[in-house]
Structures are given as C-alpha cells and as structure tokens.
Design a protein that fits this description.
The chain is an alpha/beta fold. Helix content is 39%, strand content 17%. It contains ten helices and ten strands.
C-alpha cells in the first residue's frame, strides 16, 4: 500500500515545489485538487488549458521525481449553479475528466452536492440525470469517478454533499449501478457522524477506489456545552492524533482487498498555517501510518 497526500494543504505552493516535497519525503502519490479560476482558485493544474504538450511536461516532471497523481479532484456543490450557469460545475467536472485522461490519471473525485429544500431521493434523481453522461464519458476514457463522503454542513444549506452515509451510498449506487462510480473513502467523517467506519469497508469494498487518511477528535467538553448541532465539537487531525483505530482500519482494508494508496489529508488546525508546519504535519501522519502498511 502506498502513502500520499492531498496537495490542497499546499495551495500557496507552486506545483513543482509540491512534487519536490513529495519526492524528497517519500510520498509516492498526490491527490491534486483542480478548482476553477473564477471560484476558490487552486490551480496546481489548470484543466481548462491542458493539452498534449502541457500534459507531457507534467508527466515528465512526475517521472523524474518518482511521484504519480492518484486522482484529480473538483470539490464543489455540483448541483447548484455558479452565477447564472445552472450546469457550470458539471461542465467543469467534464473538463477534469478529460484532463485526467490526458495525464494518464485513472481517477477523478468530486461531491454529489445537494439542492436545499427538496428530498434526498429528489436530489439523487437530479444527480443521476446530470452525472450519467459524465460516467459514460469517463468510462470511455478509462477514468473512474469517486464521491467523497463529507456532509459539508453549511455548504448551500445543511448537508451540502448528500453522499455522506452508507445508507445514502446504497441509494446512490442503486440508482446508478455503474461499476465506474465509487467512493473516495474518508473514515473521519463517518467517525464524528457516529457511523461505523469499519463495518462498511466490507459492504462497499468493490466501491472503494481511494482512501483518504484523515483522523478526527471529539472535543468532549465542548460537546457537553453545545450539543451536536453546534458543529464545532470535533476537529480533524492528522492520522494518529485522533480516535480512528488505524491498525484495525488498515488491516481491514487489506482484508477487503484494498491495496492502493492512503492519501493523507492535512486539515489539522495544529499543523496548519505556514508551509513548514503543514509539511511537518504530513510527515508525522506518514510516520504513524507507515507502521501498518507494507
């Protein structure tokens, strides 16, 4: 099993410097978040300006440094319009899929999004209608599409990403049985939501295309004061500094047949801020989970 990281934490760094950090510190893969220029603005790879020549330069750099891209990602509420363009994010996700194919990357990650004020089933029906042409395109390009499982509380209303629980995954995959659609599985969200992050490794083993290694810590005293609706009674941590049982979790991944990459996602407030601290956080997480992988 390989160890990598999500490059979003290094949004202020040039792509070449991110690859250099990965290479020098033993990370074999990175997840690259590709945001539109006119939204939140993370442009390690500009998918709207990718062609054979620019892709060739990126692949040459990656080969030289011994690093590969695990997936390209577009994280947004893709069911909601941007400005007045109803399908802006769907169209952009299509460009991410095309860029992945050009770069030889076999996975793309996104959110389902969510439309406030309508039922979950209605959301799933709309998502299925919009995503189906992209699944067909992705399959033709040998690219898999993954859904990341954060609920995104507060993003365009409560639950800005409805693919956050095993019950909802089952509803999504029933509506969209395409084997090319799967999960970018993050145990930290299931943990703080009170779901069993271990149980579903077996139930959805054929749908887990990538695993994000992020921990979570319950702030018990805060929870007692605020209750669960406050949203600030937990925090994300690097692996080993929260409550995820990584020994058992990684062992169960192997048992379920997963032997790909663990992508460390540094959203830890203790190890954030300047580039040096972010890097140290990634290295601490890598040092910890390396004990359990071969």
């Amino acid at each position: 099993m390989k160890i990598g990281f999500n490059a979003l934490c290094f949004h202020q760094m040039k792509f070449e410097d991110v690859i250099d950090f990965a290479s020098k510190n033993g990370f074999s893969q990175i997840e690259v978040v590709c945001s539109p220029k006119d939204t939140i603005g993370l442009h390690h790879i500009d998918v709207e300006d990718i062609d054979e020549k620019s892709a060739g330069k990126i692949k040459e750099l990656l080969k030289k440094k011994g690093v590969s891209i695990s997936c390209l990602s577009h994280y947004a509420n893709i069911l909601m319009p941007f400005e007045e363009d109803e399908d802006y994010h769907i169209s952009y996700l299509s460009k991410v899929i095309s860029a992945a194919a050009e770069l030889g990357v076999d996975k793309v990650s996104t959110f389902t999004g969510s439309i406030p004020g309508i039922s979950i089933q209605e959301n799933i029906n709309i998502f299925a209608e919009k995503i189906w042409p992209l699944l067909t395109k992705a399959k033709s390009l040998n690219v898999k599409v993954m859904l990341e499982n954060t609920p995104l509380i507060g993003m365009s209303g409560p639950g800005g990403n409805f693919a956050y629980s095993p019950e909802l995954w089952d509803m999504i995959f029933t509506k969209l049985p395409d084997e090319n659609l799967g999960l970018n599985y993050d145990p930290s969200h299931l943990f703080w939501l009170g779901a069993d992050y271990m149980l579903f490794l077996k139930l959805f083993s054929d749908r887990i295309f990538q695993v994000q290694a992020k921990d979570a810590e319950i702030l018990v005293e805060r929870l007692r004061m605020t209750g669960i609706l406050s949203g600030n009674w937990f925090r994300y941590r690097i692996p080993g500094y929260g409550s995820i049982d990584w020994r058992k979790f990684i062992s169960s991944l192997y048992e379920a047949g997963y032997d790909d990459v663990l992508i460390i996602e540094n959203e830890d407030s203790v190890w954030s801020g300047d580039i040096e601290k972010i890097g140290r956080g990634l290295l601490l997480g890598k040092k910890f989970i390396k004990n359990f992988v071969i």
